[in-house]
């Protein structure tokens, strides 16, 4: 019995390789996912900035898009330009007591490894009532 206990001490090399490999995969995944998630948070913040403006409900579509681009100017996001923003950011007209809605939809990808991509689908609709309490 004492000899069996002496032989079973420590971590084997194979166990160490397995743990380090698993840790490396998790770190790779987090490093590739973080830029997408960070961009999403910055875009949500810019949207909140736009909808919190008191006069936003009376603004034209072009004015709302310009306000969104101004809010993004302080970030490092170059995904949206004046030319392509009309494909992603739209206004939905007011209906029966509901305020107009600001709708932003886009997709962002980041390469994980080889042919595998991470995909972020952003689809958010917020009321343009001048308050920053959107869903």
How does this model look, in words?
This protein has 135 residues and is an alpha+beta fold. It has one domain (35-135). Helices cover 42% and strands 21% of the residues. The protein has helices spanning 2-7, 13-51, 61-72, and strands at 89-92, 101-113, 116-127. It has a three-stranded antiparallel β-sheet, covered by helices on one side. The longest helix has 39 residues, at 13-51.
What is the strand and helix layout of this fold?
Layout: H1 2-7, H2 13-51, H3 61-72, E1 89-92, E2 101-113, E3 116-127
Antiparallel strand pairs: 1-2, 2-3
Helix pairs in contact: 2-3
State the helix count: 3
Structural class: alpha+beta
Number of strands: 3
Q: Hey, roughly how much beta strand do the residues contain?
A: 15-25%
Please provide the ordered H/E string of secondary-structure elements: HHHEEE
Backbone CA Rg? 24 Å
What is the helix fraction of residues, given as a range?
Answer: 40-55%
Going across the biggest sheet, name each strand in turn.
1-2-3
Q: What distance lies between the first and last C-alpha atoms, to the nearest angstrom?
A: 64 Å
Whole-number average pLDDT? 87
List unreliable stretches of 5+ residues.
none
Query: What can be said about the biggest beta sheet?
Result: 3 strands, antiparallel
What is the number of domains?
A: 1
Shape: elongated
